[in-house]
Each structure stands twice: as structure tokens, then as C-alpha cells.
């Protein structure tokens, strides 16, 4: 038996390789002792060359793995899911984006509005400084001025009434003053709008009567021209009502009431002046025709005043009754 000096495994003598490690036995046998020199053979006697064995490597035994814990191998913990990151997209042409602020007016509309504001500014400048120079304005200029003038007049009257009530309210018994205060608070706004709208309606009805008197005189004036001329020449009364309102706001009520009353009386007289300014083209003498049309204007104004006063008083009465019922309930 041959014992392998490398792994110690015994192999038969006729074996060419070690059974344990696969080392060639010739190499393993020659490795421990140095080779002994042999006498060289005579040159005349050739030695047949022996074929060299080709070493073959046997399959290596598998390396045993260390024992593992019983049971299935736990799966690795799953990573927390992250929310998908939104991909920015290019804005589509013609589609407004949320971050975009769409202008209220287009550039053309803005330029048109600026031009309109400049034109109204020029008209209002002549309205204040030169009210007798009528013409050149649009219809809404006159409407805005008339509405503003009647609103200032109505507000002045309401402020004066409120101050008068405050003065006499101290002398009322507490039980009565409590209900009256609530009533005034509820019906004050309705009273303002009633006076404002009633005054405006009376003024436009007067302009209609003025157009009727001009038609009787065969005057070529139209309602639009009369409206523009009346509104442009209303500047002194607008300034007077504004002054009365300022006086009322600083509690100069007697002076404010005097200015407001004189301005209202002068405005009612001015209407008859406008009737008298009409150009008569009838065969009847102009003085007689102006007198008759002025007389007609007085009758029409009286009728209109009665009608409008009844309507406004009825509406305000219903408003006050509703306010009283709410207070008492």
C-alpha cells in the first residue's frame, strides 16, 4: 500500500493517483527524497521515451455549510413606499394655467377706459368751473351727475334729521326711546333711498315737462340736449348740497338746514327759468306763450309731486310698519 505524504491516504501500489487528494503518485513518491543520479546509458542504445501521464483533477467535495436556524428565512423588510414625484409638464398653448392671473380688461379695453376717463374729467372740469358751457358730453355723464346731486341732497336731509332726533331723544322715556332707536336704525336706510329715488324721479319728470313746454313753443330742442344742458348747469346746486352735507357732518345743523333749504328752493325756481328761456316759434306772442307754458309747468309739477309723494310715503309707511312689527315682536 502506498501512503500519500500529502494527505495521509493509503492507495494501492498500482494506483497512479492518490485516492484522497488526487496527487500523482510518481510526483508524490519522488518529492520526499532527492533523486539518485543514474549512470547514463550508452549512446548506441537508445531509450524509448515513455509517455507522460496527464493528470486529471477529480471533483472536489462540496464544502459543508454551517447549520442554520430552523424555520424559514425571514424576508427582508419592505422599504416604505414613496409618493410618486409629479413630472412637470409644459403648459399647453392657449390654456390658462392656475398660476396665471387673467387681466380684467384687455389692453384695448384698458386704453378705451382711460380715454373715457379723460373725456369725463374734461367734462367734469367744465361742469365745475364753467357750468354754462353745455354740450360735448355723453348721456351717462349727465345721469351720473344728476344721481350724485340727488343722493347728496337726500343724505344731507337724513343726517340733519338724525341729529334732530338725537337732540330730542334725551327727553323721551327710556321705554319709548328703546323702541324708537331700533325703529330709526331699521328704517333709516329705507328713508334715504325713498327720498333719493323720489327726488330723482321728480327731477326727470320735470325734464319731461320741460320738453313738453318746448314742443308747445315749437322749439327744436330734444330731450337729450335738455338733459345734457340741465345736468351741466346743475353744478351750483351740487356744490351747495355738498356744502350743506359737510356742515351737517360737523353738527352745524341750523346752518346746514338753511343752506339745504335755500338750494332746494332755488332749484325749483330754476326750472321755470328754463321754461322761460325757450325759443318761441309760434304765431302767438312769445311773452304770452312763455307765461302759459310756465303756468302749465307749475300745474304738472304739482300733480307729479302729489303722485310721487303718495308713492314714496306709502312705501316708507309699509317699511316703517314692518320695522315696528319687528321691534314689537
Radius of gyration using CA atoms only: 58 Å
Lateral arrangement of strands in the main beta sheet: 1-2
Distance between the termini: 131 Å
Q: What's the story with the biggest beta sheet?
A: 2 strands, antiparallel
Helix content: 55-70%
SSE map:
Elements: E1 2-3, E2 10-11, H1 25-30, H2 107-129, H3 139-169, H4 174-216, H5 223-232, H6 235-249, H7 253-276, H8 286-328
Helix pairs in contact: 3-4, 3-5, 3-6, 3-7, 4-5, 4-8, 6-7
Could you explain the architecture of this structure?
59% of the residues lie in helices and 1% in strands. It has a two-stranded antiparallel sheet. The radius of gyration is 58 Å and the shape is elongated. The protein is mostly helical. It starts with a strand and ends with a helix. The chain has helices at 25-30, 107-129, 139-169, 174-216, 223-232, 235-249, 253-276, 286-328; strands at 2-3, 10-11. Strand 1 (2-3) and strand 2 form a beta hairpin.
Features:
single chain; two-stranded antiparallel ribbon; 59% helix
Write a concise synopsis of the structure shown.
The chain is mostly helical. The chain has 8 helices and 2 strands.
